[in-house]
Amino acid sequence: MRKNFGVKPYTYPQPVFIIATYGTDGTPDAMNAAWGGISEGNELSMCISAGHKTTKNILERKAFTVSMADVEHMTACDYVGIESGNKVADKFEKAGFHAVKSEFVDAPLIEELAVAVECRLKSYDEETCRLVGEIVNVSVDERVLDEQGNVDVTKAAPITFDPFNNAYIRLGEKVGNAFQDGKALK
Questions:
Q1: Residue 80: helix, strand or coil by DSSP?
Q2: Alpha-carbon gap, residue 68 to 71, rounded angstroms
């Protein structure tokens, strides 16, 4: 038996992205966005409306970073999602974030969040709110790397968004092998 939910933006899990930009005056800004993902090998696509300060900043500067929210900074990551940069000019600072200038794009990296994708604006459709960024670099803080230099997901402690229950979920326990386990069905 199945329960039908109708037309809803429910996929599970959804990454919790923290999009960071610089305003026209150079002030860092961040927002929480859960509707997005990889759309090509070197592209990230998200749905963010034109009214966001972050969207305005991206259109002005043609660049942004997307950090993965983590357990340690869940409250700050939630704060930048519920507070508007149009109303609170120092939202980034109030969240307790510290900006580090990206070497690759005109946007800040968030020092507290270990994994970040650095993007150049590829396109934005105001009607559909679809933002597409070209990935120019992925930077990872060494504190979440293992002895071989790979990302240790348990150290990174990313959170995901559960749209069914409006909750953040911690994933980190390996439960399978991508591109391997499915071969058993061949």
A1: helix
A2: 10
CB 130 within 8 A of CB 122: no
The 8-class DSSP code of residue 183 comes to G
- Assigned token pair, 41: 């090998």
Q: Is the bond into 15 cis (omega within 30 degrees of 0)?
A: no
Length of the chain: 186
DSSP-derived 3-state class of residue 97 = coil
Write out the two tokens for 62: 């043609």
Q: How far is residue 51's CA from residue 20's CA, in Å, rounded to a whole number?
A: 16
Q: What phi and psi values does residue 173 have, to the nearest 5 degrees? A: -85, 120
Q: Could you tell me if 169 and 34 are in contact, meaning their C-beta atoms sit under 8 angstroms apart?
A: no
The tokens describing 88, both together, are 């609170």
Please tell me the pTM assigned to this model: 0.90
What distance in Å separates the CA atoms of residue 2 and residue 81, rounded to the nearest whole number?
A: 32
CB 119 within 8 A of CB 136: yes
Q: How many helices (H) and strands (E) does the chain have?
A: 4, 12
**Greater pLDDT, 129 or 172:** 129
What letter does residue 69 receive in the DSSP assignment?
A: P
The dihedrals phi and psi of 14, each to the nearest 5 degrees, come to -110, 135
Task: Kindly state the percentage of the chain with pLDDT values over 90.
Answer: 70
Structure tokens at 150: 């790979």
